[in-house]
Design goal:
This protein has helices spanning 83-89, 104-118, 159-168, 260-276, 316-339, 357-366; strands spanning 29-37, 48-56, 65-76, 91-92, 96-100, 140-144, 186-187, 190-191, 194-200, 209-218, 246-254, 286-299, 344-345, 351-352. It is α+β, with helices and mostly antiparallel strands and 369 residues long. The protein has one domain: L-amino peptidase D-ALA esterase/amidase (4-Layer Sandwich), CATH 3.60.70. It has a six-stranded mixed sheet with strand order 4-3-12-11-10-9, sandwiched between helices. Helix 2 crosses helix 3 (159-168) and helix 4 packs across helix 5.
Length: 369
């Protein structure tokens, strides 16, 4: 299955990184666990078309060396975990996990278990380290629903599956489509999934990299727009039993030395990339953005104030480039999530068809693209 750039119908103003993915930001890794199991009628224990995807900002102990992070809610019909502490403190201390809606508590619990294994003082205090207070941990988990294709009630993703995704984590090219948290999702009436893209700012913008990863599960077929062309008005999937407003999780990573406020500005720009693909953020959707910078690691509860850090004091000269990078990367990541997804038959015979690339090309050529 091709990515959007392979079809020669899409151009961007900024250049992508080597992998054209979120892992182009140095140190960022992505891992998946995918559960494809069972066929036919719902049993209460399957069939499953689900999974979990982890995004790791760096290879170290994220609890001891946190990264600056901002979150943004475009539309809040969702069950994300950990956002409130991120808003308050401006950092994350576990990998970011994406999964299906009813698995959020189980995945959060798994992240806490792994964090405690790596940091045994969590919940017990700092007597052995000389630091003050008692430590807790804030797992960050995002979700979209895969209930059309998978048995969500069984809540099949837990500690073993999160461990497997962690073991799978790589800084190389990201596997896209029907994988991990995207195994059972839908997008614009077609099969959705995991997609990613990146942009590298030119020299006048500091040569910084911005990467996006999405878990796409939103939109109605007629809304799909590709590079300004109303593809959904000309190309629609076979009739389905159910059409959902759906949701999307958008993860942004950058090596630019941005603070929480500045990352928040980038979070807001992600909505423009989403809109370029045709979304109007339906009332029944959960559309969330998480943005982090790998430039500055934040030690956990340092004994004194940390002051020697490189931060963009005034980002305005490059804000337009940063914004464009986010918008383009999010837009392209969504296209990749669609085009890299194949047809999936799920529980009770429910089916989501893969977006046919050759038909998309025909429509685009009709608009001289």
């Amino acid at each position: 299955m091709p990515r959007i750039r392979d079809l020669n119908i899409y151009r961007s103003q900024l250049s992508p990184g080597p992998h054209n993915g979120i892992t182009d930001v140095a140190g960022v890794a992505v891992g998946h666990f995918t559960l494809i199991e069972g066929d036919g009628a719902w049993t209460g224990n399957g069939p499953f078309r689900t999974g979990v995807t982890l995004i790791l900002p760096h290879p170290g102990n994220l609890y001891e060396e946190k990264v600056v992070t901002a979150v943004h809610t475009i539309n809040g019909f969702g069950k994300v975990a950990g956002f409130e502490q991120v808003r308050e403190l401006g950092n994350i201390e576990t990998p970011i996990a994406l999964t299906s809606t009813l698995n959020v508590p189980r995945v959060a619990d798994a992240l806490m278990t792994i964090a405690i294994e790596q940091n045994p003082h969590i919940g017990l205090g700092f007597a052995a380290t000389g630091r003050q207070g008692y430590a807790s941990v804030n797992p960050v988990v995002g979700e979209t629903s895969d209930g059309f294709l998978s048995d969500m009630q069984a809540r099949s993703i837990g500690l073993a599956e999160v461990r497997a995704a962690l073991a799978d984590a790589s800084t190389g090219p990201v596997v896209e489509g029907v994988v991990g948290a995207g195994a059972g999702t839908s997008c614009y009436g077609w099969k959705g999934g995991i997609g990613t893209a990146s942009r590298v700012l030119p020299e006048r913008g500091g040569n910084y990299t911005i990467g996006a990863l999405v878990q796409s599960n939103f939109g109605r077929a007629e809304e799909l727009t590709i590079a300004g062309v109303p593809v959904g008005l000309h190309l629609q999937p076979p009739p389905s039993k159910r059409v959902e407003d759906g949701s999307i999780m958008i993860i942004l990573a950058t090596d630019a030395p941005l603070d929480v406020r500045q990352l928040g500005r980038l979070c807001h720009r992600a909505a423009f990339g989403l809109a370029r693909t045709g979304s109007t953020c339906h009332g029944g959707s959960g559309d969330f953005v998480i943005a982090f910078s790998t430039a500055n690691w934040m030690p956990d509860r340092p004994e004194q104030v940390v002051v020697e850090r490189e931060t963009a004091v005034y980002e305005q000269p490059i804000m337009s480039l940063l914004s464009l990078a986010v918008i383009e990367a999010v837009e392209e990541a969504i296209y990749n999530s669609l085009l890299m997804a194949h047809t999936v038959v799920g529980r009770d015979g429910n089916t989501r068809y893969g977006l046919p690339a050759e038909e998309v090309v025909k429509v685009m050529h009709g608009y001289h693209r």
